[in-house]
Every structure is written in C-alpha cells, then in structure tokens.
Amino acid sequence: MDKSMLGDLDGLPEEDKLRMAAMVDQLQIRDSLRMYNSLVERCFTDCVDTFRRKTLDKQEESCVRRCAEKFLKHSMRVGMRFAELNQGVATPD
Asked: In the chain, which ranges are continuous DSSP H helix?
C-alpha cells in the first residue's frame, strides 16, 4: 500500500495505523477482483457465442483482446480523471 495514503493518520497509535493499512489493502484487492470479474463477464458475454471448441477461434480471440483493451483503457482513464478531480479538492488543515 502507498504510505502517502495514511499521511493523515499521524495521530493514531501504530497498531491502529497497521489495522487501517490492512483494511485499505483488502479494499484494494476486492476492487481489483471486482474489476477483473467485470472484465471477464463482459468480454465473455460479448465475444463468445458458442462452445464449438475447447479454445477460442480467431474471431472470438480478437474480440476478447479488443474488449479487454477497451475496458482497461477506460478504467485507466476513469482512474486518471478521478485523481485529477481529487487533486482539485481543497483539504482543510
């Protein structure tokens, strides 16, 4: 976990900081798994029509690749935009 995320917790005891860091790590893992599951479900639904073979045919493979690239690019753009918006928010000190 990025230590700068816990910068506002300087007044807490070390045990609470560690507990908070563990909670943030769990949330990040959960969010990553949700994103991955969403990607798999969406691309599978959009690209795989039949179960003719054990492996994907060229058209399905190409569709899955494009779908995954679009999904990841979109997710990165949303994350960047979110970070831009967060930088603009003033924090009271």
From this structure: 14-47, 58-88
Q: Coil, helix or strand for 45?
A: helix
CA distance 45 to 60: 11
Residue 39 makes CB contacts below 8 A (sequence gap 6+) with 67, 68, 71, 72
- The C-alpha atoms of residue 70 and residue 6 are separated, in whole angstroms, by 32
Model confidence pLDDT, tens digit, residues 11-53: 778 888 889 889 999 999 999 999 899 999 999 999 998 888 8
The pTM of this model reads 0.63
**pLDDT tens digits, 64-73:** 999 999 999 9
**The tokens of 73 are what?**
């690019």
What CA–CA distance (Å, rounded) separates 93 from 85?
A: 19
